[in-house]
Amino acid sequence: MTKDLSMFEVKKFVFSPVEENTYVVYNETLECCIIDPGCYFSNERNELKDFIDGLSLRPKYLLNTHCHLDHVFGEKFIHDTYHLIPYMHQNEKEMLELAPLAGARWNLPFDGYQGQVNYLTEGDIVRLGNDELKVIYAPGHSPGHVCFYCEQQAFVLGGDVLFQQSIGRTDLPGGDHDTLIRNIKEKLFVLPNEVVVYPGHGPETTIGFEKRNNPFLQAGA
Ligand SMILES: [Zn+2]
Ligand SMILES: [Zn+2]
User: Fold this and answer.
1) pLDDT digits (tens, 9 = 90+) for 71-108
2) How far apart (Å, rounded) are the C-alpha atoms in residues 33 and 92?
3) How far does the centroid of ligand 1 lie from the alpha carbon of residue 56, in Å?
């Protein structure tokens, strides 16, 4: 495939003892989005910053699919380093505020982000140059979970909604199994089969593969 003039690159990092996937999405504008900064240890924060600085990227958006602790360990670091106000669905604000408490409980203490936030809602478009990510609202794993869909390049940054042959847990506050299943069917399984899912944990998959193989989403499951 010849490289389009304008095209997102997706860089994945696996951070923290929870093994959370943090993504940096960028293009030829050299602007970038940082999605779910889960960098916990200082070497992880340096790795993320070295990548961004090494390519001379200019962070434009700090985006959260949701605000469980493992997805916001590095929220304050990114804010303090690049002066970005995070974007999330409004139903995640409380999760963000509770995350440091959850960290203490899980023996993963961290300094939480406390400042103002920007809200995302279904259908919002996040733009870097000519490339776009569209916000899909898909709660169930958490109360205000969103996914970021790039129709042009057929990928979705899916957070903890849909994993390779698994789905997000629903036993945490604000989780609801039936809502999660319904949203996977109505919001993600309506996307083309070739769409690549970059999940919040584990390897990439595709919508088509999960339709056929995900044990939580087969008929009668
Ligand atoms: Zn989560
Ligand atoms: Zn997670």
Assistant:
1) 999 999 999 999 999 999 999 999 999 999 999 999 99
2) 19
3) 30
Per residue in 187-206, pLDDT (tens digit) is 999 999 999 999 999 999 99
| pTM, full prediction | 0.96
The residues, ordered by sequence, that sit 6+ positions from 171 with a Cβ below 8 Å of its Cβ are: none
For tokens 């390049």, name the residue: 153
CA of 5 to the centre of ligand 2 (A): 33
Ion ligand 2 neighbours (CB, 5 A) are 70, 160, 200
Ligand 1 mean position, distance from CA 142 (Å): 7
CA dist list (Å): 139 to 119, 178, 211:
15, 10, 19
Long-range contacts of 176-182 (CB under 8 A, 24+ apart): 176/139, 176/140, 177/140, 178/140, 179/139, 179/140, 180/138, 180/139, 180/140, 180/141, 181/140, 181/216, 181/217, 182/140
Q: Which residues lie at CB < 5 A from ion ligand 1?
A: 68, 160
How many A from CA of 159 to the centre of ligand 1? Answer: 7
The tokens describing 13, both together, are 């990092």
